[in-house]
Design goal:
Strand order of the largest sheet: 1-2
Strand content: 25-35%
Structural class: alpha+beta
CATH topology: Beta-Lactamase
CATH superfamily: PAS domain
Distance between the termini: 7 Å
Radius of gyration: 15 Å
Number of strands: 6
Helix content: 25-40%
Number of helices: 5
Number of domains: 1
CATH class: Alpha Beta
């Protein structure tokens, strides 16, 4: 995020909470990527699904982490960015133990009021 402070959620329980700390607690796998599909963040649920650690995944293209049958053809991230909306599909990922796991991908671009949040 180019040296800026991490995004925060204001007014939650009367205090400011770092966004990624909040997202880390959600029990659904979440992967945040930049427009070049490089991993910026993944929560603990995504770590459990893929077997990859956040620190290892940071900066790596998402297809190396997800190893999904839709990564080459039908990428929901690419579709969401091209259409400036959300995209979802059912697919399989292959985790580090080489187990195939059926998942439902939902991808959507994240913007602030002024610009894409990763450009801040």
């Amino acid at each position: 995020m180019k040296g800026t402070a991490a995004p925060r959620i204001e007014g939650l329980c009367g205090q400011s909470v770092p966004l990624f700390q909040f997202v880390d607690e959600i029990p659904i796998g979440i992967l945040v990527v930049d427009p070049a599909h490089r991993v910026l963040f993944m929560n603990r649920a995504m770590e459990a699904l893929t077997g990859a650690l956040k620190q290892e995944a940071a900066g790596i293209p998402c297809w190396y982490i997800l190893r999904s049958n839709v990564c080459v053809k039908g990428c929901p991230v690419r579709k969401a960015l091209e259409e400036s909306g959300s995209a979802c599909c059912e697919a399989d990922i292959v985790n580090r133990s080489r187990e195939r796991i059926p998942v439902r991908f939902t991808a959507a671009p994240i913007f602030s009021r002024e610009e894409a949040w990763w450009d801040s």
